[in-house]
Design a protein that fits this description.
By secondary structure, this protein is an alpha/beta fold. It has helices at residues 22-40, 56-65, 69-86, 100-115, 169-178, 186-197, 226-231, 233-236, 247-251, 264-278, 309-316, 318-327, 339-369, 381-402, 406-427, 429-432, 439-460, 465-474, 484-487; strands at 6-15, 44-52, 93-96, 119-129, 134-136, 154-163, 183-184, 203-204, 206-207, 215-216, 219-224, 256-260, 286-289, 292-294, 297-298, 335-337. It starts with 5 loop residues before the first strand and ends in a 24-residue tail after the last helix. The protein binds one RNA strand through helix 6, helix 10, helix 13 and helix 15.
Length: 511
RNA sequence: GGCGGUGUAGCUCAGUUGGUUAGAGCAUGCGGCUCAUAUCCGCAGUGUCCGGAGUUCGAAUCUCUGCACCGCCA
């Protein structure tokens, strides 16, 4: 086992037939928070996102608009990329399945598995909707008709390459049983286990009905099936198979594939069995998060309630959105997005609790000491309680972060915000300020308070990078040099530092 | 239909291996402070722990059963 502190995590690659919505933003954001957290803990992080560009739907949509599939993809990719920039996403790479590096990797893994004898040419038989040019399984049909357009379907055969997935059923079962954390949360693991126990069939991994895709090596009539193509992005981005930058060697196996629950099976069965067949190590963890409803209703184009992330960021600010999405709902469960809940969180958690804490703390230091931190003196009981609480809860936050329990991590951080607010009440600086003999005590209280604010800002930074940096700047420390692994102990603020009087971090939203 | 899960305060949920008056946050009511973005701190509640039966000295927790809701079944 490597002792190097490296961490590789991925979002799914997003299909360019769809434009970015809150669901995409959520997955990507969760990964970003984890990536920033791991970096802050001293890890070298590889954080991949990207786009899935092949397939019949894209081909058809492009033709309908009179452009090539690649032109369509180029257009939509920009929308994803600009949103990630706006959301402050710190991905280290962006893979597109139309890229040459990806094509090379997909064809190589196909050849490898074929050479092993796990790919064979056969016939794919299913129900076909001619107008939609789409195959459907029997269970998907609605009264025998196409679930998309409602028109009748025909039973059709198509020549197809198959992957001997059935061969890996027992191996997968054993792996999942031996690794309880491989699939999270637990309910998703149960689903996959029961699915596996019912038996795996071989998987059709090529199509001949469209051409926008990666050709099967040695047979141009066939295009490689979208999931075989798409899943391979996780290693093609690392440079598989040539690995000229040594990234594949450094970062594979992946620490976590973060996905939505809709693509669970592809990631927990298809992908691992491909890897087993290719003789490559399996990812360490697949974490499937839940869905967002909007104002209590399912998001849908027909309801026109799809939440546009750009608009939200413009209206409420990027950090408020980042905070809300990860605080409101346990990662792994479904949740509801509502404007009233968002405004409520912004006002109570961000403006009243955190923002106001920074305001009152810096205002007092400014008023009583012209903003200059003094050397802390004798520690009292309430000081010790505060310090102990911070030491203890920092560890708890780390524990939650390692478990992808973002909402619990934030809850714990907010216990610290409350503790700091309570410390102000208990120590009553305004009373100390009236007595010249208490000058030293007042300075100590101010020091402890600002030190609490410093640690809170560090903990909050992975979630709200701009806010974290802003607080650091106010405290007169360099945000660039504030990694948790070097700065997470109590008492690191330097006496003599000049602290700014803060302007409100999060203005209250009047309702 | 098969498998899995959920049902606890007005709302969202915690409740470890069954053990004294069932908890947190938000919302509500009352009190306190004045440094602060009218913000903060403290106190107070209220619960047939979905229904029923059983095991036990003792069940929110274990067993059976009924009801309701949710997920998965290429």
């Amino acid at each position: 086992m490597s002792v190097d502190k490296r961490f590789y995590l991925t979002t799914p690659i997003y299909y360019v037939n769809d434009v970015p919505h809150i669901g995409h933003a959520y997955t990507t954001l969760a990964c970003d928070v984890m990536a920033r957290y791991k970096r802050a803990r001293g890890y070298e992080v590889s954080f991949l996102t990207g786009t899935d560009e092949h397939g019949q739907k894209v081909e058809k949509a492009a033709h309908a608009k009179g452009e090539t599939p690649l032109e369509l993809a180029d257009r939509v990719v920009k929308r994803f990329q600009s949103l990630w920039e706006k959301l402050n996403i710190s991905n280290t790479d962006f893979i597109r399945t139309s890229q040459e590096r990806h094509k090379l990797a997909v064809q190589e893994i196909f050849r490898t598995i074929e050479a092993k004898g796990d790919i064979y040419l056969g016939e794919y038989e299913d129900w076909y909707c001619t107008p939609c040019e789409t195959f459907w399984t029997e269970t998907n049909l609605l009264d025998g008709n196409c679930p998309d357009c409602g028109r009748p379907t025909d039973k059709l055969k198509e020549e197809s390459y198959f992957f001997r997935m059935s061969k890996y059923q027992d191996q997968m079962l054993e792996h999942i049983e031996a690794n309880p954390d491989f699939i999270q949360p637990k309910t998703r693991r149960n689903e996959i286990l029961s699915f596996l126990r019912e038996g795996l069939r071989d998987l059709s991994i090529s199509r001949t009905t469209f051409s926008w895709g990666i050709p099967v090596p040695g047979n141009d009539k066939h295009v490689i099936y979208v999931w075989f193509d798409a899943l391979t992005n996780y290693i093609s981005a690392l440079g598989y198979p040539n690995d000229s930058n040594d990234d594949f060697n450094k970062f594979w196996p992946c620490d976590a594939h973060v996905i939505g629950k809709d693509i669970l099976r592809f990631h927990t069965i298809y992908w691992p069995t491909f890897l087993l067949a290719a003789g490559l190590p399996l990812p360490k963890k697949i974490f499937a998060h839940g869905w967002w409803t909007v104002e209590g209703q399912k998001m849908s184009k027909s309801l026109a309630n799809v939440v546009e992330p750009n608009m939200l960021i413009d209206k409420y600010g990027v950090d408020a959105i980042r905070y809300f999405l990860l605080r409101e709902v346990p990662f792994g469960l479904d949740g509801d997005f509502s404007h009233s809940a968002l405004v409520h969180r912004i006002n109570s958690d961000l403006a009243n609790d955190l923002g106001n804490l920074v305001s009152r703390s810096t205002a007092m230091l400014s008023k009583y000491f012209k903003g200059e931190l003094t050397t802390p003196c004798k520690e009292t009981d309430i000081d010790k309680v505060l310090r102990d609480k911070f030491i203890q809860i920092v560890a708890v936050v780390y524990k939650h972060m390692e478990a992808f329990a973002f909402n619990k991590a934030l809850q714990s951080i907010w216990e610290l915000v409350s503790a700091a607010n309570k410390y102000i009440d208990d120590s009553a600086p305004w009373t100390l300020a009236k007595d010249d003999d208490q000058r030293e005590r007042l300075g100590t209280v101010m020091y402890n308070l600002l030190e609490a604010v410093r640690l809170i800002s560090l903990l909050v930074t992975p979630f709200m990078p701009d806010t974290g940096a802003r607080i650091c700047t106010i405290l007169g420390i360099d945000p660039e040099d504030q990694q948790l692994d070097k700065h997470d102990s109590w008492g690191l603020l330097k006496p003599g530092t000049m602290v700014e009087k803060a302007t409100p971090l999060f203005p209250r939203i009047e309702t």
